[in-house]
Amino acid sequence: MGMQPGPEMGYPGATVTIAPEPSLRAEFGAHLEMNYPRLVAQLCMITLNSAEAQDLVQEAYARAWQRWADIRELPNPTGWVREMAVQGTTSKWRRLKARLGLDRARAADTPSDDPAHAAVLDALRQIPLYRRRVLVLADIAHLPLDEVAEIEGIDFGVVEGRLAQARRELNEYMALRPATQPPAVNWEDM
């Protein structure tokens, strides 16, 4: 960081604040270490691609680092990082890459060797992205619906409708799984 204009620099009445760079780095690193795995898991359930989820969360943390002195003062810095990562899933560039097959191979991406986990991801894959985002944000990230509405940029009622439909679809797809597959774990505990 640096010095802000203060009295000694010819700006009367201004205060001088110097951010302690080493402690700022340590704080950011601790935040990243504590929250990164959970955010990647949430984004993986949205994107259904662990590499893309990691990229999105890394990009969000890169943006956060640039403004960490301000972001750390927010009531929920983790929420800010999550919101930036989720917004990345709606990027026109990412959608175009996926449509053209230029993204990393989705079919080959196996976020888990656990058959129950794979069954849940297969069911999630059947739900359109815009409903899947709402489902994951509400049921996995446990965000209040008004916060989900803000992240998604839609009305509260639309969030309720999308969530109800996504839950219904998930339950239907999970019920259609072949009987030979092991029972799925509670998907919210993943």
Describe the overall structure.
Helix 1 runs antiparallel to helix 2, helix 6 crosses helix 9 and helix 8 packs across helix 9. The chain is built from 9 helices and no strands. The chain is an all-alpha fold and 190 residues long. The N terminus is likely disordered.
Topology:
Elements: H1 21-47, H2 50-66, H3 68-71, H4 77-88, H5 92-100, H6 115-125, H7 129-139, H8 145-152, H9 156-175
Helix pairs in contact: 1-2, 1-4, 1-7, 2-4, 6-9, 7-8, 7-9, 8-9
Tell me the radius of gyration: 20 Å
Largest sheet: none
Mean pLDDT figure = 82
Structural class label? mainly alpha
Distance between the termini: 39 Å
- Characterize the overall form: globular
Tell me the number of helical segments per DSSP (H or I, 4 or more residues long): 9
The share of residues in helices is 55-70%
Q: What's the quick description here?
A:
The chain is an all-alpha fold and 190 residues long.
Jot down its keywords.
190 residues, mainly alpha
